[in-house]
Design brief:
The complex is a heterotrimer of chains A (306), B (280) and C (373).
Chain A lengths: L3 E2 L4 H29 L2 E4 L3 E4 L4 H6 L2 H33 L6 H13 L2 H12 L4 H23 L17 H26 L2 H9 L4 H12 L1 H16 L3 H6 L7 H9 L5 H27 L6
Antiparallel strand pairs in A: 2-3
Chain B lengths: L17 H24 L16 H8 L1 H34 E2 L3 H13 L2 H14 L13 H23 L4 H9 L4 H30 L2 H6 L7 H11 L3 H31 L3
Chain C lengths: L3 E12 L2 E12 L3 E5 L6 H9 L6 E6 L2 E2 L10 E4 L11 H11 L4 H14 L15 H13 L5 E5 L7 H18 L2 E6 L2 H7 L2 E6 L2 E6 L1 H6 L4 H6 L4 E10 L4 E5 L3 E5 L10 E6 L5 E3 L6 H5 L9 E11 L3 E8 L4 E7 L14 E5 L6 E3 L2
Parallel strand pairs in C: 3-8, 3-9, 6-7, 7-8
Antiparallel strand pairs in C: 1-2, 1-4, 4-5, 9-10, 11-12, 11-14, 12-13, 14-20, 15-19, 16-17, 16-19, 17-18
Helix pairs in contact in C: 2-3, 2-4, 3-4
Classes of the chains: A mainly alpha (306), B mainly alpha (280), C alpha+beta (373).
Amino acid sequence: MAEQDWSEDKKPFWAISTVPLLWTLVFFLVPMVFVWLYSFGTNQGLTEIEISGTLDNYKRATEWLYLSIFAKSLAVAALTTLICLIVGFPVAMAITFASEKWRPWLLLLIMLPFWTNLLIRTYALMMMLGSQGYATKAANAGLGALWGGSSWLKSLFGLEPLPTWEPIELLYNNFGVIFGLVYVHLPFMVLPLYAALDRLDKSLIEASLDLGAGHFRTLMKIVVPLAGPGIIAGVMITLIPALGAYLTPDLMGGTDSQMIANVIERQFKRANDWPFGAALSFLLIYVMFIIIALQSMRKKIPEVSK
Amino acid sequence: MGVFSKTARAPLEYTKTLWMRGWVGAVMLFLYIPLFILMAFSFNDSKRNVVWRGFTTKYYEKAWNNTQLWDAMTNSLTIAFFATIFSLMLGALTAVMLWRFRFPFKGAVDGVISLPIIVPEICLGVAMLVFFSWIGWPNDLVWPFNLGAIIIAHITFCFPFVTMVVRSRLASFNREQEEAAKDLGAGEWQTFRDILIPHAKPALIAGALLSFTLSLDDFVITFFTSTPGTDTFPVLVYSLVKRGVTPDINAASTILIILTVILTAVALKFQDAQSIAEGH
Amino acid sequence: MSQPIIQIRGVTKRFGKMVAVDDVSLDILAGEFFVLLGPSGCGKTTLLRMIAGFEVPTEGQIIIDGQDMSRIAPNKRPVNMVFQSYAVFPHMTVAQNVGYGLKIAGVGRAETDDRVREALELVKLGGFEDRTPDQMSGGQRQRVALARSLVMRPKVLLLDEPLSALDAKLRAQMQFELADLQDKVGITFVTVTHDQDEALSMASRVAVINKGEVSQLAPPSDLYEYPANRFVADFVGSVNIFEGKLTVDEKDKAVVDCPEVGKIYMDHGVTGAHESQVWVAIRPEKMLLHVPGKGDAVKAAAKDAPEGHNFARGVIKGMSYLGDCTLFEIELESGRMVRVRRSNISRTDQYDFTWDDKVSMHWNSASPVVLLA
C-alpha cells in the first residue's frame, strides 16, 4: 500500500515518531557512542576515564593473545552452527513433510525449550554433563568398555595393551561449551529452515524423482539449493548470537574455553579496564557487521537454482 | 530408493521413514532429557544434589520459603511486565511510523532500529553499564524504582522485536479501511484506535509474548545493569550455580517449566480462538 | 435546470513527472447520476479521490456546494465514498459498521439505532444488524458499505468501481438497484467505472476520460449516437470507423469519400469541419445485410441516398452466434474488415448466412456520424 510522505501530515508523523526516535537516540545510540568514545580512552585512577583519542586499546586488542580468542570464538561459533545445521535440517524436513495433524505439535515441541528459561536449561545440561552426571557416567561406561575391549583384543594379538582408561570429562571444556551452544541454539536453526522448506514447491521434488534421481541426490541437488535463503537465515540466526555468547562458555567452559564475550566481561568487572573492554566490544561488533555484509553480498549474486 | 523406507509410503512422506523418525526422536530426547533430569532431581533427597539418594518433596517447601528466590522471581516478573508494556507501545509506534510514512533518512532509521537485534548482547550490556554509570544513575532507589535501569535496558532491546512482528502484520492491512474511516468522519487518532489497532491485534499479542519471554529470559544485559538487591531469577541462578546449587532451585525451576508449558498452551488456545474469529 | 453541486475548475494532478489528470473542468449537477468512464489508468479514480479529499490537486480547485475544498480534510467533507474493496471493518458487526460515522459525529444511541435500521432496510439488508462481515458474501458487504455511507446523508455519494467485483448476474441486478436507490434517495451519485455497459445503463450523464482529459461529457445516448471523437466512438460500444475526405458539406447533407468503403452520404451537415480529412463512424447494428439472391443493397441504399452511396460488398470471414443476434466479420472489397450485427428476428435467421458467402450491405443516411478527431 502506498506510503505517505511525512510532510503531508506532520502532526500525526511527529505524534507517532517522537517517542521511539528519542528513546532509540537516548538509550541506544548515546550509550553506544559512549562505548565507542571510551575505546579511545585510558584509565585515570580507579573511576575516571580520560578520552585521549589513543589507539592503544585497539592495538592491544589485536595482539595475538586476543586475536586468538577471537579466532577461537569464531571457530566455536562456526562449529556450533554447522552441527546445528546438520542436526536441524532433517528435523526441519521431518516437520515439513509431517502430516497436518502432527506438524503443529512437532513445531511446538521444538520451540518449547526456547521459551524455557536459559539459565534453567544451562543448569540442566550441567547436571547431566557434570562429572557425576548421567551422561558422563554413561559415556564413560560405554567408552571405557570399548577401550577395555580393544585393549584386551590388542593383548590377544601380542600387542601392547592400551594405557589405562582415564574417564573423560564432558563439562568445563570445549566439548561442554559446544554441546551447550548447540543445545541452546538448535531451535533457532530449525525454524527458518522449516519456513524455507515449507515454501518449497513439492512438485519439484516429485519431478526429480520422476526423472530417476534417488532421494539423496534429490535432496542435495534440488532441496538444499532451493532452501538456500532459509539455510542462510538459519545460519545467521545461529552464528551471530553464538559468536557473542557469554553464559554458556562461562558456566560450561574451562579456563581455556573462554570466548570473546567472557574476556569483555572481565574487563568491566574484575580487571576494571573499561577502555580496553570497549575496544574489544567494538571489534566484536565490526566482525559481526563484516559477516552480515558478506552474507548480504552473497544474496545479491543471482541464484542459479534448479 | 527403497533403502530408507521400511513401510510402504508415498515418495514424499519423508516423515514416515524410520531413520527420519529416529533422528527426530533423538533430537527430542537430546532437548528434553536434561530438563527431565532437572525436574526429577527436584525430588532428590540430597543437599548437594549430584547423586540420587531418595524421594522427597521437602525442597519444594524450601523453595516456597526461600525469600531470596521469591525476591528474584518478583523482580523478574516486574521487569518483564513493565518492559513488555513499554516495548509494545514503542514497538507498535515504530512499526506504524515505518509502515506508513516516507521520510528523509528512512533507510538509516530502519537500520538503526534493528541494530539492537543484531548487536551482541554483551555489547548492549556493556553500553548500558557505561551509560548508567556516566549519567550517575542512582544506586539506592526503593523498589520498584531500583529496577528502573534494568527495565530501561530491557525495553531498548525488546521493542525492535515487537516492531518486526507488528510491521509484517501491518503489511497486510487494506489501506482503504483507513480511508473509509476518515471518509465517515474519523480523525487520525480515532482511525488509529478503531481500525488500525484491531487489525494489528494478533501481532501485538505475539509481540507482547515475545517481549515478555525475552525479558524474563535475559541474563547478560540484566547482569550488567543490576545492582545489589535487584537480582532477577536468571542472575540468582547464575550466582548459585557458581557457588553451589541446592535442590530447591531445581524445585523452583520445575515450577517455572510447568508454568511455561501452561502459558504456551493457553497462548495457543487463544491463538486458535482468534484465528477462528477472524475467519482465517 | 439543476444547480451544479460539484464544480471542478482546471484541476491538474501530477505524480512526479506523470500527469494523471490534465486541466479538467466540469460541473456535476445536483441529483444526477454522474459517471466517470474510461480505461484503466486514465485518471478517473484519481479525480474521484480528489473530490473525496484523499488526493490533493496540484493545480485547480474543487468546489462542493459552493465551498472551496482546498483546505478541507476528507473527514470534514460533505461527501461519502464507497470504496472498491468495500473496506467494511472486519472486526465490527454490520450495525457497528453502519453506525460508525454517526458515533463519531456524536449522534445519540437511539437515533443511531433508528437510522442504522433505516439504512439497512434501504439496501435490503434489514435484520442483518448483528452479522459480522466474514459471514457475508461480497454483494452483501457492498450493501453494508453503501448503507454505511448513505446513513450519513451526504450531499454526494462517490462510488469507486462499484460493480467490478460482482459476477455477471449480480452486476446486472445491482445496476438496476443502484439507479433505483439514487432515484429514491435523491442525492447526487458520482461513479467511476471502466465498464461502458454500466455507464450507459445507470448514468444521467457520462464523462469519458482519456489520458487525464475529458473526451466527451454527455448523456449516454449522445455518447453512443453522437460520439465527439474516435476514442469515445470506439470505447463506448463497438464501431466501424472509416477515414475519408469530406467532399460535400451543406446544411442538410454531407458526403465523405472513403477509399475503403466507398461514398458515404449523410442527411445532415457537419458542424465545425475545417479540414477535408475526417472519419466516419457507423455502428455495427446499423449496417444491414442482404441475403444473397434475395435483395440488393444498392437498391435499398438508393431509397434515401443518391446512387452509388451507402452500400458495400464483401465476403463473410467470421460469424459469432450470440443467440439474440449474430456478429459478422466481413472483408470488404478493399480488404478492410468491418463488423456487422444482425438481430435474429425469426428462428431461422441464423441459417441465412455462412462463411465465405458473398454479401452486400447498406445503411441509412441518418446512421453515419462524422468525427473530426
